[in-house]
Amino acid sequence: MIEFKNVPLASLRDLREQYLASLCYPQELHCEWLVAKGTCVSIETDGERVGYFVCSEEGQLVEFYLLDKMFARKEEIFGRMLGEFQIKNAFCKSFDDLFMTCCHTFCRSCKIGGILFRFFTDEIVMPLPAGVTVRKAKEIDIPLLLTHDSDLYESPEELNYTVSNRMILMYEKDGALIGCGYLIRILSDKNIFDVGMWVNPAFRRQGYAVMIISHLKEMCLKAGYVPVAGCAADNVASRRTLEQCGFMTKHCAVVFEF
């Protein structure tokens, strides 16, 4: 008999390691952050844990995993899960085969929600111009950063977290803030970093977005890290910037409605 039990995320460590190892490409930072604040449920049968799923704070399904021996029952388990937990939608990486198959089986509609970049050339497109300096943001910079538009951060709490953990680089010229670069380790035990950028509106359309992403990619390659990226499907400017910097994509994040 299949049972569902709410559990803390830490208790799923072994299963999550198996899940992440089963993916052909690196985890998406957006998913990892949703999981960190989500509701975790263990899937069990006869006292044995055989899988799990995670829903975000808003109730969106973001991870679903079963041990290989349970694949024959995937539709039964997934269907029960949707019904018992009243799950209405899911956010699924296109290279997450089991999750994708189950979502397609039960969905009434779907659309591309994000573009995932997991390939890149080694070429550095744009070096830092003369006069541009780079430094890690510090807590003293937070009041200044908070004065800029919300594209720089989703919430003040997120900004505090990324700055406190030295995940934001500030690009400056002649004392003015050109923009910021994000360099965020996705998983604590992997040298895989999500890269992203924000450009001060006063400096947009001057090539600085390409400069920042090129510099972040160069930093990763010199350190032996793997850079990955993602953007919303409708964020054409970010996608073009990443592609100009040598990032390539054949994957996406799909939003399913059940």
TrEMBL record:
SUPFAM superfamilies: Acyl-CoA N-acyltransferases (Nat). InterPro entries: Acetyltransf_19, Acyl_CoA_acyltransferase, GNAT_dom. Pfam families: Acetyltransf_1, Acetyltransf_19. It comes from the Bacteria. One of its GO terms (molecular function) is acyltransferase activity, transferring groups other than amino-acyl groups. Residues 132-258 form the N-acetyltransferase domain. This is N-acetyltransferase domain-containing protein. It comes from Bacteroides oleiciplenus YIT 12058.
